[in-house]
Design a protein that fits this description.
The protein has 492 residues and is α/β, with parallel strands linked by helices. It contains 19 helices and 10 strands.
Length: 492
């Protein structure tokens, strides 16, 4: 029966770096020593000193994943009699998931932890990074967080295989330039330690092993970099310094429509189907322009003491959690329709609406506002189940418009009903009416350009052509377009 478990950290290198009392414990004849792995200088030296040491190397070979390894290691430790010493590389309190698993399973068996020296202390000393003054984050190279910020120095640990190093280099390359310099640290504390500064382009070719880590200096890139850069421009750029919320409003609207146009070009199946990376590059750029507008308004609000960009992010995060009780709570929602109905009910309570028609912005484009009003009503069942009645309603409204053509006011009223009914049809078909009309506008523009250039090629002006002649060129444009139309774009 296990009487006591002592967990000790072997430090970053050999036995000579360990405190005397830890070395004495590891060599005491009346304790059972279990090593997590022999792939460590101190562990290798200990195996030469005594032949009764047990390692967990065989468990790594047999297990399906690391979680199983850690569980099996804990079982092995707790299956021993008497006083058991479980020795792990580095510090027992830093990055040792096997120690955490052991503490979860130890039950009534007493356990004591002797942390030991962490390799991180050597990383900080060799790199000159002060974790308090400079700030620091430590991440696992085999499981990098996503997103991964770089606003403070970053230590990437467990870069133990070439494929891990390649993956880490690829992730860093998403936001850092190829000539950005990182530090590769290996075998710290040993006679053969190496500390090398290399560019990101050179990183994948570096040697790595069980004791390899990277130090990535802080960089003004990514999300944090955008916020920092915008704040600096606000202070140092005359144009940025002159802006107000009102002066930026037209830019926000313009960038919104440019992003919408770029997204339209992805096609209706995106992100499904074969991705068009050229089109995605345009979407990336336009979303960046739109994101800048959000950050800029947050910078101005911060100056006023109203809110900051982090508060915006946290506010919408909390809203998402609250409005998705089927994900973060115990509500059951097995269809998108139920999700939307729940969303509207929760939102109505949050905003203390007296009507579902409240707080739909009047400034929205008319088609978009019509679609939102219809969705609100549909959330409580005020909607047709089938497409047939929707089509019939469009026909009915067109008939009423035809009967009102001699009265401008009446025709305006009936035309609005036609547009509203068509928007409802688009909603039932799963088509965004605003997007469909933008596509139609572009299609009309391209066809008319063809008519113009064709007439010019014949040495004629449109004013000199009959409607029938222009219609003939229009039909040619439609025929040519039919051979190149993108999937999802309708022809008419």
């Amino acid at each position: 029966m296990t009487e006591l478990v002592t967990v000790v950290g072997l430090g970053p290198a050999g036995l000579d770096r360990l405190p005397t009392d830890v070395r004495r414990l590891l060599t005491a004849p009346d304790v059972k020593v279990i090593l997590r792995t022999s792939a460590h200088p101190a562990a290798a030296e200990l195996l030469e000193l005594r032949d009764d040491v047990v390692t967990g190397d065989d468990l790594y070979d047999a297990a399906a994943d690391f979680e199983q390894v850690y569980g099996d290691l804990a079982d092995r430790v707790l299956s021993q009699d008497g006083h058991v010493v479980y020795a792990v590389p580095g510090s027992a309190a830093v990055g040792e998931r096997s120690v955490r698993e052991l503490k979860n399973r130890v039950g009534s068996v007493p356990i004591e932890i002797v942390p030991g020296e962490s390799f991180l202390e050597l990383v900080f000393e060799r790199s000159g990074v002060d974790p308090i003054t400079d700030g620091v984050q430590v991440v696992d190279g085999r499981s990098l967080p996503d997103p991964l910020p770089f606003h403070v120095p970053t230590v990437v640990t467990q870069v133990d295989r070439p494929e891990v190093l390649a993956d880490v280099a690829a992730r860093l390359g998403q936001v850092l330039d190829s000539d950005f310099v990182v530090t590769v640290l290996d075998s710290l504390g040993s006679d053969d330690e190496s500390v090398a500064a290399v560019s990101l382009a050179e990183l994948p070719a570096q040697q790595c092993g069980p004791r390899t880590s990277l130090l990535v200096p802080a960089a003004t890139v990514g999300w944090h970099g955008l916020v920092t850069t915008n704040r600096r421009l606000r202070q140092e750029c005359p144009w940025d310094a002159d802006q107000t919320h009102r002066s930026l409003l037209s830019h926000l609207i313009e960038e919104t429509f440019e992003a919408a146009e770029a997204i339209d070009r992805l096609g209706t199946e995106a992100p499904g189907g074969e991705p068009e990376f050229g089109e995605y590059a345009v979407v990336e750029e336009e979303l960046g322009d739109l994101l800048l507008q959000v950050v800029f308004h947050a910078t101005l609000a911060r100056e006023a003491g109203a809110f900051d960009v982090e508060e915006i992010a946290e506010g919408i995060r909390r809203k998402l959690v609250h409005r998705h009780p089927h994900v973060f709570g115990d509500v059951v929602a097995d269809s998108a329709e139920v999700v939307l109905a729940n969303w509207e009910r929760i939102k109505a309570v949050e905003k203390q609406r007296s009507s579902l028609m409240d707080d739909v912005p009047i400034a929205l484009p008319a088609l978009a506002r019509a679609e939102k009003l219809q969705r609100r009503a549909a959330s409580v069942g005020f909607d047709w189940d089938e497409i047939g009645p929707v089509l019939a309603k469009v026909g009915e409204e067109v008939g009423e418009l035809a009967a009102a053509l001699n009265d401008v006011d009446a025709a305006t009223h009936e035309l609005g009903d036609v547009l509203f009914a068509v928007t409802n049809l688009a909603r039932k078909l799963g088509i965004d009416a605003e997007t469909a009309l933008r596509i139609a506008n572009e299609r009309f523009s391209e066809r008319f350009r063809y008519v113009e250039t064709s007439a010019e090629a014949e040495g004629r002006s449109l004013e000199d052509m009959s409607l029938e002649e222009m219609d003939s060129l229009w039909d040619e444009a439609k025929s040519r377009e039919a051979m190149t139309v993108r999937p999802g774009d309708a022809t008419s």
